[in-house]
Queue: 2 jobs
Job 1
Amino acid sequence: MNQIFSLRRWRSDILELLGSMRFAVSLLMFVCVASLIGTVLQQDQAPSAYIDQFGPFWFALFDKFSIWHIYNSWWFLLIMTFLVVSTGICLFRNSPKMVRDARSFREYIRESSLRSFHHRLECASDVAPAENQRRVQQWLSGQGYRYKVRQDGENVLIAAKKGSVNRLGYIFAHAAIVIICIGGLLDSQLPIRLQVWLGKVP
């Protein structure tokens, strides 16, 4: 029983690590640094050209990290793969919540919760409630707000919001990272290497 619990906890910790924003940002920083090296250093040249440029010692050291063809090096492809997995997990876990928040007006919030808000304003009006409601709705529409009205006996709650579409930026940005990384993996030598490892002739 303890082994099963330990295994589940281990899996949960791994998923939590892969799905954490810090892990994804760290991987993205490694990709940026590697891409900078690949941009500055001319790739796929003859070994003699690099020996003349850096000398035998530094050539042997840098060759261990395959910086001469950095975009096809095993560690760069591994980082890209982990970045796809990490960003995909973040996208899978947070997208439904983002969509729900974008669509929700939270019109069922309690009055006590509203009074506990730090930014609030309470005022009295001599105008009839129906006229007040009409004026508020007219003003909200003029300011570009979307609103929802909830009638609770004699009380009327108007929940309004705008800019909900901005939450979709999180989804689109993460989806773009996943698509770009997958495109980079497919454009590398990874498909050919997989065919070789599987015993297929590319």
Job 2
Amino acid sequence: MSDDYYGHDEDHPSPWGPHDWDHGAPHNSWFPVIMAIGIGIFLLMFARVFSFGEYDFSYLPMVFVGLAVVAAAMIVWWRQDMSFDGTYEPRSSGAPFKSIQIRKVGTWVFLMSEMMIFTALFSTYMRYRFGIPRCDTVFESGDWVEGTAVTCFEPASHLIASSWWHIAPGATNTFALIISSFTIVQALRWAHKPEGSVDEEVRRKRIYRYLGATWCLAALFLTLKMIEWFIGFHVPEIGFLGLQEHEIPSLYSEGYLINNDHYQHHDYIDETGAHMMANIRVSATMFYVTTGTHGFHVLGGLVGLTYLTYKAWTGAYTPQSAVSIEYFGLYWHFVDLIWVLVFPFFYLY
């Protein structure tokens, strides 16, 4: 095959970018594939470092190797994309996606594969939720012996929904993601405004500010997630509101862990003072895997927003190149929709 087939010619002299898009798309970027390989290395090695409370740090160097591969591939990929000005947006020529932008088709195919992942997680959760006796049901039945752990399902909502303060981080995150869907749409709206209808400097500022606001909301989501899981928070005394000073413990400090087979909750003490112990490995694993997978998608969106915000700050987005924000917006709305399902299933029910 000729060099032109891969995009190596006088208009696209280097696979490292930037490219001259006036002469078509450069079909020579392997860096998305390399980035995917890096993510695979990272996830595989990270899973080997942490396994049900056992730590094997011999795999830690490979974790950083995976991260380095991801970072290097992402930087090159972004450098290639920086020159994209909307001049050439390749479209599909065959059925059933004829005349539809190839990147949009790819985005929808990717989102469909993501739907299968979360469908599997939700269905597994429901299978265990209804297939394993609930811990409160086991406790009330009296079918347990003190000092012997009983395998039962303890939903995280038993802790999280126990008070308004416990549920505050999750509820705040719900509003944060809903608002972020609005801000990403506003960024696209300003990018789509016809040339001449708005001052270009105003366009630039509005786009990067709305994208920056989306970035901040995504960062808030992850911060509150860490507070909920690992840190907890302090509620000060506010007399005129009738609030007493107290601590809201994290799930970690409450012992809600994937390796806890001797979990004890203050509700599981009978009138004689006997304390029921529960093996909650399955229920805790389902909670952390599902919400963690969603959190990983938010983290990926945060990384993407970093690039989009920077590119918007340079004034690179115009009505012609606004499609990049549109494609990211599809992904971000999907992340928002998944959380709207995760929140009631895992935090309220």
